Amino acid sequence: MTIEKKHDLNFVQVLHEALPYLQKFQGKTVVIKYGGNAMVDESLKASFARDIVLLKTVGINPVVVHGGGPQIGSLLEKLNIPSEFINGMRVTNTETMDVVEMVLGGLVNKEIVSLINQAGGLAFGMTGKDAHSIQAKKLKVTRKTPDLQSSEIIDIGHVGEVETINVDFINRMVDGGYIPVIAPIGVGKDGASYNINADLVAGKMAEKLGAEKLVLLTNISGLQDKQGKVLTGLTTAQVNDLIADGTIYGGMLPKIECALEAVASGVTSAHIIDGRVPHATLLEIFSDHGVGTLISNA
Fold this sequence. Notes:
This protein is an alpha/beta fold. The protein has helices at 3-25, 42-57, 69-78, 94-118, 167-175, 198-209, 236-244, 252-264, 280-286; strands at residues 29-34, 61-66, 85-86, 89-90, 123-127, 134-138, 141-144, 151-154, 160-165, 179-183, 185-187, 193-195, 213-218, 233-235, 269-274, 292-296. The strands form 5 sheets. It has an 8-stranded mixed sheet with strand order 5-10-2-1-13-15-16-14, with helices on both faces. Strands 3-4 form a two-stranded antiparallel sheet. It has a two-stranded antiparallel ribbon with strand order 6-9. Helix 2 (42-57) packs across helix 4 (94-118) and helix 6 packs parallel to helix 8 (252-264). The longest helix has 25 residues, at 94-118. The protein starts with a helix and ends with a strand. The model has no long low-confidence stretch (mean pLDDT 88).
């Protein structure tokens, strides 16, 4: 058998493996949180855009929610605006919020839209302020005082949490053939802008849209046990056990809690995958092995 024929057979094998997933997920919505290395590496950015277009082309409805923390930090530094974090969240005064809106709603959002459109898709860029898509309220943050006897409420400015999502508007975009690309900026009842964690927005978006999947792109290979082995298929009960015994801790906790809440609210499965792997989204959705950790109620 020639090498060319071997390659042909490999390609056919891939298509056969993908077929049941293509059939199962056709017409379903997949919410993808886009961030990490996949957003800064040029080749990964291009492959991500093509993957999103492929999903739409085969009848799956991708909705992209993106981050942009490093880009915000870089511009703040150039403008000599100091960055401060409390409990991992950026303190966002009015001046900082202006930069957040400029970077997320402008530079980052429009670059993603352009890449998807260049790959043959119809991307529609927006923030949560458009059509009041993401109505938000101020996030209340508490931390222990130094004596650890009581908690204090910290005002971290224009940092918010999702209150409601205008799913009708998002669904109109999806039904019209568009790929929504959403910057995680919400609007309060008073018209104020709020910077919201992109993982939390993606989780709530998946929940309210009744998504089949929530996919969180990260800079790690997935959830790992204490020996560093990637844990692939987990139930919510198993994840809660891993939190209880300290296997999951620190910066991974908010992402995991977001995934757990989405699955508990009706999303079929949540996936924490390695965005450093080219075509990670397709590999996770259409292959038997995947490239990360799948969490479900099953």
